[in-house]
Amino acid sequence: MQELGPFRVNPDGKTLSRNRHAWNNVANVIFLESPAGVGFSYSNTSSENHESGDTRTAVDAYNFLLNWLERFPEYKGRDFYIAGESYSGHYVPQLATVIVALRKLGATSMNLKGIFVGNPYLDDYKNTRGRYEFLWNHGVISDEVWGNISEHCSFGRLEGKACGQAKAKASVRTGNIDRYNIYAPVCIRSRDGSIHSSSYLAGYDPCIGHYVDAYFNNPEVQKAMHARTNTDWSECANVNWSDAPISMVPTIDWLVNNGLRIWLYSGDMDDVCPITATRYSVKDLNLTVTNPWRPWYTPDSEVGGYAQQYKGGFTFASVRGAGHMVPSFQPKRSLVLFYSFLKGVLPPAVPELNA
């Protein structure tokens, strides 16, 4: 409702408008709320709504797909892809690993072709380093603050008190900015309780999360969606996470070696899972470059971002002018990149010539 879906929630929190750049324009899309306890998803075992982890989330998602295909058998055997963003840097490769491993054993016929993950959270330590380095590179924190962090932080398992103090200074000096897009307007709440955007950014409303929350907590909406009525819907859940690897690089490397099409992309204005951190993880894959870093263009002859391909078909791309939620900030560029991923070719390297 905020990014790639067919509808957006209007400011009244009750009505919808069409998203002209929805991914549904080029693909059939299943939206899966995961893990149990998030959104409308739940487990009949109440403890599972509060206790989860990477392993169970992958198994649950696989079981969902298995049962969905049994209910809609006409989709069996079709090519399909898994996409996500942020912590889906864990969710998506892990679900893909379950499918590929079972396929190698002859235990599933799911025709998974590739994964497409935006602003992925891939490595605990690389992400921490990348966040502060990104802020420094974009002039948000000073040379002195970044120098202090660099001097006292190893960005490893054990950090001293001086590292924590150095990072704390960075946090208090960033000001009231949106870490998901450091150049975007923020949602302001007035004294009378009303909310509004701090400024104008075409096609984007920083307050949309409030509209979506109101919409999904409307009893009529819950009934129409066949969800449990009287559900206290929320975008996230207070789930106690029990297992997660420090780095997803070995998992992605295994998927590349098993022939899966893998594209990672980054909105270049995000500081939550910044392009800086993703580049460190891509470097750790130690893959051979086959198509060097170059701009890619939209049908409007704009530079949509930059991309590089590696041996095995692995692709890393940026989306220019986008934050963490790429389809929210750059819906048209997001759709161009997604369509190119489905086709298995990079977007055009030169702008289109208008007659």
Description of the structure:
The structure is a single chain. This protein is an alpha/beta fold and 355 residues long. It has a domain at 5-122 and 214-341: 3-Layer(aba) Sandwich (Rossmann fold), CATH 3.40.50. The chain has 11 helices and 12 strands. The protein has helices spanning 54-71, 88-104, 124-137, 143-152, 161-172, 208-216, 219-224, 249-257, 275-285, 326-329, 331-343; strands at 7-9, 16-18, 51-52, 80-85, 112-118, 187-189, 195-197, 240-241, 261-267, 289-297, 303-310, 315-319. The strands form 4 sheets. A 6-stranded mixed sheet has the order 4-5-9-12-11-10, sandwiched between helices. Strands 1-2 form a two-stranded antiparallel ribbon. The relative contact order is 0.16.
CATH secondary-structure class of the domain at 5-122 and 214-341? Alpha Beta
Profile the largest sheet.
6 strands, mixed
Give the N-terminus to C-terminus distance in angstroms.
37 Å
Helix content: 25-40%
**Poorly predicted parts:** none
Gross CATH architecture of the domain at 5-122 and 214-341: 3-Layer(aba) Sandwich
Mean pLDDT equals 95
Shape: globular
Per the CATH scheme, the topology name of the domain at 5-122 and 214-341 is: Rossmann fold
Strand content: 15-25%
Short description:
This protein has helices at about 55-70, 90-105, 125-135, 145-150, 160-170, 210-215, 220-225, 250-255, 275-285, 325-330, 330-345; strands at about 5-10, 15-20, 50, 80-85, 110-120, 185-190, 195, 240, 260-265, 290-295, 305-310, 315-320.
Task: Name the features.
355 residues, alpha/beta, Rossmann fold, six-stranded mixed sheet, two-stranded antiparallel sheet, 11 helices, 35% helix, globular, carboxypeptidase
